[in-house]
Write a structure and sequence with these properties.
Radius of gyration: 22 Å
Largest sheet: none
Structural class: mainly alpha
Number of domains: 1
Distance between the termini: 36 Å
Number of strands: 0
Mean pLDDT: 85
Strand content: under 5%
Shape: globular
Helix content: over 70%
Low-confidence stretches: 453-462
Length: 462
């Protein structure tokens, strides 16, 4: 049986997250590849609709993300019952928010599609896709909350196993609906949307089973009525700045995608294909960043403050090494990869013209994510929120318009703006982490509480 220390080691946390992200990448890549067989217009619609879905998911991820960090902190402090209560509230509230969003997205699909200034021929496709996938947003909410809770108990294998099953089912259903094989009707993009719903439903069922036994005391139906105002306040204290941060990122991306839609369907399709390709670069680094957040939150809750401080740097440097390796692969396979998705030479050329910029972008993104997640893990989420609001809108979105549209740089202008944004925020979070404001405060609090000498580490050192 794994000890608590081993359970929260960086490697044991990270590798299942990596496999899960790899499978998600494969799902996204295969999904895009299959949709591209319908048409490049369908790809553009899916890319844009997914930006909308990311925007609305921030509403329930505010609760889920804050709860995940607090669960790891409480488990580190040996407050298992408090962690269990937080988990129950996170799942219940996320489900209620998901039901509300499902209703809105299903009945308001066309007005939402019109917000993106799509070309007229794309509107019917977008309306159908948004209504079906958006109508099942409650499943996305449940899946996100359950995965976050389970992952932050140190069980990163559970979501990984779920991802395997979800991938297999989604690919099989996609194949059947797009090509009319395996006894399925040929439904094109509508079939892709239905496939998405079915795979998410089965994933939720498996995650619910894992959730029931995630803590020492088994979950019961009556537990769904549990509400602890004090703990929920702690969740919101951590979670609402995270929600604003995520919302800021998603809505700036929506704004940028609107700029891309104004440029034309080819630019929009090229960006969608490049998003899939960029995921290869960042997948390993992102898995480390997520694992570091869980590990630091647990160490912080346990009072191992100096070890938490070192973990932030260790994880970020490891992530940078992995991102660098993946960027080299990206350069080698870029043309072949894009050729798998489209035969349009103009779209391929648009994507290839931005590969060098993508390679420059990824290290800045890794530093921003690694050190930013370290700050989040100890509850310093407001700082990330403030710099995100300023940098994402003034730099990422503002420069995208100036460079991409006003100066006519097109897709390249979007990438240059993203590079400036990621490196600026990365620099600011590194400076914040080095100052150790929250860690020093936690150390002073521990000294006031007169923790027994054998139960804590030495103080924080500069």
């Amino acid at each position: 049986m794994k000890t608590e220390k081993n359970k929260f080691s960086l490697w044991l946390l990270a590798w299942p997250i990596f496999i899960e992200l790899l499978l998600q990448l494969m799902l996204g890549a295969v999904d895009t590849l299959m949709v591209s067989r319908v048409s490049d217009d369908a790809v553009a619609v899916v890319g844009l609709a997914n930006q909308l879905f990311q925007a609305v998911t921030t509403l329930f991820m505010t609760v889920a993300s804050g709860a995940g960090i607090l669960i790891a902190q409480k488990l580190g402090a040996k407050q298992n019952e408090a962690a269990r209560t937080v988990a129950i509230m996170a799942v219940t509230i996320s489900t209620l928010i998901g039901l509300l969003l499902s209703t809105i997205l299903y009945f308001q699909a066309r007005p939402l599609a019109q917000l993106f200034h799509l070309e007229d021929r794309l509107l019917p496709l977008a309306e159908t896709y948004i209504s079906i996938v958006g109508g099942g947003m409650v499943l996305t909410a449940l899946s996100a909350a359950l995965s976050t809770v389970i992952r932050n108990t140190g069980n990163t294998k559970g979501p990984m196993i779920t991802a395997i099953g979800m991938n297999v089912i989604h690919i099989v259903f996609n194949y059947g609906f797009i090509y009319g094989e395996l006894g399925f009707p040929q439904l094109g993009l509508t079939g892709v949307a239905i496939s998405t719903l079915v795979s998410r439903l089965l994933a939720v069922m498996l995650l619910l089973f894992m959730f029931l036994t995630a803590f020492e005391r088994r979950m019961e139906w009556r537990d769904l009525l549990i509400f602890n105002r004090k703990l929920f306040g702690e969740v919101l204290k951590i979670g609402w700045p995270l929600g604003v941060n995520m919302s800021s990122w998603v809505f700036t991306q929506l704004t940028i995608y609107t700029f891309l839609a104004m440029m034309g369907a080819k630019e929009l399709a090229a960006r969608t294909y490049m998003n899939t390709l960029e995921s290869i670069c960042f997948m390993l680094g992102y898995s480390i960043a997520l694992a570091v957040q869980i590990q630091i939150a647990h160490l912080y809750g346990a009072g191992k403050l100096q070890e938490a401080y070192r973990s932030g740097y260790r994880g970020t440097w490891l992530g940078l090494a992995l991102v660098g390796f993946n960027c080299a692969i990206l350069v080698l396979i870029g043309r072949v990869f894009l050729g798998l998705f489209t035969s349009d030479p103009e779209i391929i050329q648009l994507g290839l013209s931005c590969i060098a910029l993508t390679v420059i972008l990824q290290p800045g993104r890794m530093v921003n994510m690694g050190m930013g997640n370290s700050l989040n893990a100890i509850g310093d989420t407001r700082f990330n929120m403030i710099i995100s609001l300023v940098s994402m809108w003034a730099v990422a979105a503002g420069l995208s318009y100036v460079l991409g549209i006003h100066m006519g740089w097109g897709l390249a202008g979007i990438y240059v703006a993203s590079i400036c944004d990621e490196y600026l925020r990365g620099l600011l979070v590194v400076i914040r982490w080095r100052r150790q404001k929250y860690l020093r405060r936690a150390e002073r609090q521990r000294q006031i509480e007169v923790v027994p000498a054998g139960g804590s580490e030495a103080g924080i050192h500069a």
